[in-house]
Structures are given as structure tokens and as C-alpha cells.
Amino acid sequence: MNQDKVKQKLLAIEDTQMDFTLIFSGKKSKKVNGLYKPQSREIILHNRNFSSDDTGQNLLLYTAIHEYAHHQHACLRGGTLSARAHNSEFWAIFHALLEKAEKKKIYSDVFSVSPELLKLTEVIRSKFLKNNGELVKEMGKHLLKAHDLCTGIGVRFEDYVDRMLRIPRTAANMAMRMFEYDIAPEVGADNMRFLAGIRDDDERKAAETALIKGKSPDTVKIQVRKKETEDDPVALLEKEKARLERTIATLNKRLEEVKRELSKEQ
User: What pTM was computed for the model?
Assistant: First the structure.
């Protein structure tokens, strides 16, 4: 499979707003299998990292799709990428491309080829993810009882959480919400915390259903974020403003550090 065929496969998965170049470096790299250069819109694959058998070529396609996700992400941002390229938005794009590639038989589902791995996955989901979720949800039920008891004897519940249970208040509040919202424990405790933070009942249920059906957490988070910004465009501007302010603060701090270092050298 040459570089032209790989590019054709990527375009067959999903078209792109901006053209790009795909290059086989002809090299072997111990650090990375590939990279994306947003300035020149180049996907570079270190093709000597991959064997010529089906497994190696499938891994090459996986890497190509990963770098193509960076390109698609850059297209959404006007051709540029932030310093933190591997954020939730990127992973959502990448996972969506993988799903499309699997459906179109361009990329093979690597997880389904190992019966042993599938069996182990089921054990992890049922014995650990679900059980852990059930435990946290049950703790939320008991925390609500503790809240009522504290109110009855005139004690602040927050003080009880801080000094008797010695757990973060946010963790206690999330556990109580998990129980009150009756969140499905099979999604796992971490995803339950995310769902507990969604106030709208319909949005939370839709997100929970998506997770149960197999969507990745990043994909669901981006869907929720898009829905929130569609409902409230001001919220989108506020988040962008906060992000820019953080970036400016970081750059100003670094500028002052550089100035100090320069003054020492002079």
C-alpha cells in the first residue's frame, strides 16, 4: 500500500474542507509512527515502522486515520491547532473516523479478533466498572441519609463530610446526584460523575444512552458541549473568552520569566 492509496482511503472515509499531502518518510522512528504539520497540511507516516502483513498495514491505516483526525480538527479551526492537540474535540473526531472506517471496511476492528480479549473486556465491564458504579451510587444513597440526620441534629453536612468522612465535598455531592438521577452503573463511576454534572434530564439521559451504546466518553462530552452552546451561544463566547484569558496569562507569565533570565545574562 503506497502513500497515494492511503490518501484515497482517508478521503473515502470522510471528505475534507482543505487538501492535504500524505508522505511516506521511508524511515523508521522509535518515537512516533506519524505526525501532522498543520502549517503545511502534511501527514507524514514513518512507513518502515509497519510490517507488510495485514496486521502491519492495518496499524499503518490506524496511524493515518489518527493524523487525518488532526487535519480535520485543524480544518474546523481555520487551519490551525492549539498547543494541546489531543483534547476531547480531537478524540471525538478520531473515534468518529474510526467508526466510519470500520463500517466501510477500510479499517479492521482490532478488538474483535481476540476472543480472549473480548472475554476479559466483559469481566472488566461487569465485575469492575458496573460494581464500582453501583458502590458509588449506593454511597450516594447513604450520604443523603447522613444529610438528613445532620440537619436533624443541627450539624452542617459539609462539616460532617470534611471531618468525619474526610472526602472531597464535590465527590460527596456527585455521589448523591448519581443516586438521585438514578444513573446506570454499567457506564462506570467516572462516566457517572460526568453524567451527574448534566442538569437537564433529557440531555443527561441522551448522554447516558450514547455511552451504553458504545460511544466514547470524549464523543459524548463533545455532543453535550455542542448542545449547550447551541442552546446558549453566549456560553460559547464566555468559554472562548476564559480560554483566551488563560492563554494570555500563561504567555505573560512566560514573558516575565524570559525578561528576568535576559536581565541576568546582561
Answer: 0.78
Strand pairing partners for 36? 43
Query: Any idea which residue has 496511524 for its cell?
Result: 63
DSSP for 205-223, written as a single string: HHHHHHHHTT--HHHHHHH
Q: Determine phi and psi for 45, rounding to 5 degrees.
A: -115, 130
d(CA 213, CA 74): 28
- Cell 520569566: give the residue: 257
Gap between the terminal Cα atoms of the chain:
56
With H, G, I as helix, E, B as strand and everything else as coil, classify residue 156: coil
237 burial class (0-12, 13-18, 19+ CB within 10 angstroms)?
Answer: exposed
Q: Going residue by residue through the chain, which has 266 residues, state the pLDDT in tens, using 9 for 90 and above.
A: 899 999 999 999 999 999 999 999 999 999 999 999 999 999 999 999 999 999 999 999 999 999 999 999 999 988 888 888 899 999 999 999 999 999 999 999 888 889 999 999 999 999 999 999 999 999 999 999 999 999 999 999 999 999 999 999 999 999 999 999 999 999 999 999 999 999 999 999 999 999 999 999 999 999 998 876 665 667 667 777 887 888 898 899 889 989 888 888 77
| Residue 43 near residue 79, CB atoms below 8 Å | no
State the residue for C-alpha cell 480479549.
117
CATH of domain 3-112: 3.30.2010
CA–CA separation, 127 and 124 (whole Å): 6
Indicate the domain borders of the chain. 3-112, 114-228, 232-266
The residue written with cell numbers 462516566 in the block is 191
